[in-house]
């Protein structure tokens, strides 16, 4: 499985990368603009991501905006919600209204979220819920 991480903070990014490498091939970006570029390249190259992990607060483009782009791109390509990439949001806020909106409302929603510092057992449980297993 291909996994995309978008996280601007070095330590969090490094820890997430090490964690997700147990589940598949990991690409790392540092802001929302890079994340949507990587997502678009993967989808158009017929090698889509199975999982995207987006930080909410990032420079250049935040995770909520990147999430909206990802969901709109999937919709424009005819990708159904059943086949859509799973998106897990991360945040240091507990929980911000933007995250609640992203999690619960409309077609642009994320699948799940974790707060920072990330509890990796909780993250493992979330991945298990969606059928992702360590390689």
Give a short summary of the structure.
By secondary structure, this protein is of the alpha/beta class.
Structural class: alpha/beta
The residue-averaged pLDDT reads 90
β-strand number: 5
CATH architecture: 3-Layer(aba) Sandwich
What coarse outline follows from CA principal-axis ratios?
Answer: globular
Largest sheet: spatial strand order: 2-1-3-4-5
If you compute it from the alpha carbons, what radius of gyration comes out, rounded to the nearest whole angstrom? 13 Å
CATH homology superfamily: Response regulator
Write structural notes for this entry.
The protein has 135 residues and is of the alpha/beta class. The protein has one domain (2-129): Response regulator (Rossmann fold), CATH 3.40.50.2300. It is 41% helix and 19% strand. The chain has helices spanning 10-20, 32-44, 63-76, 97-104, 120-129; strands spanning 2-6, 25-29, 51-55, 86-91, 112-115. It has a five-stranded parallel sheet with strand order 2-1-3-4-5, sandwiched between helices. The protein starts with a strand and ends in a 6-residue tail after the last helix. The model has no long low-confidence stretch (mean pLDDT 90).
List the helices and strands and how they pair.
Elements: E1 2-6, H1 10-20, E2 25-29, H2 32-44, E3 51-55, H3 63-76, E4 86-91, H4 97-104, E5 112-115, H5 120-129
Parallel strand pairs: 1-2, 1-3, 3-4, 4-5
Q: What are the defining features of this structure?
A:
5 helices, alpha/beta, Rossmann fold, 5-stranded parallel beta sheet
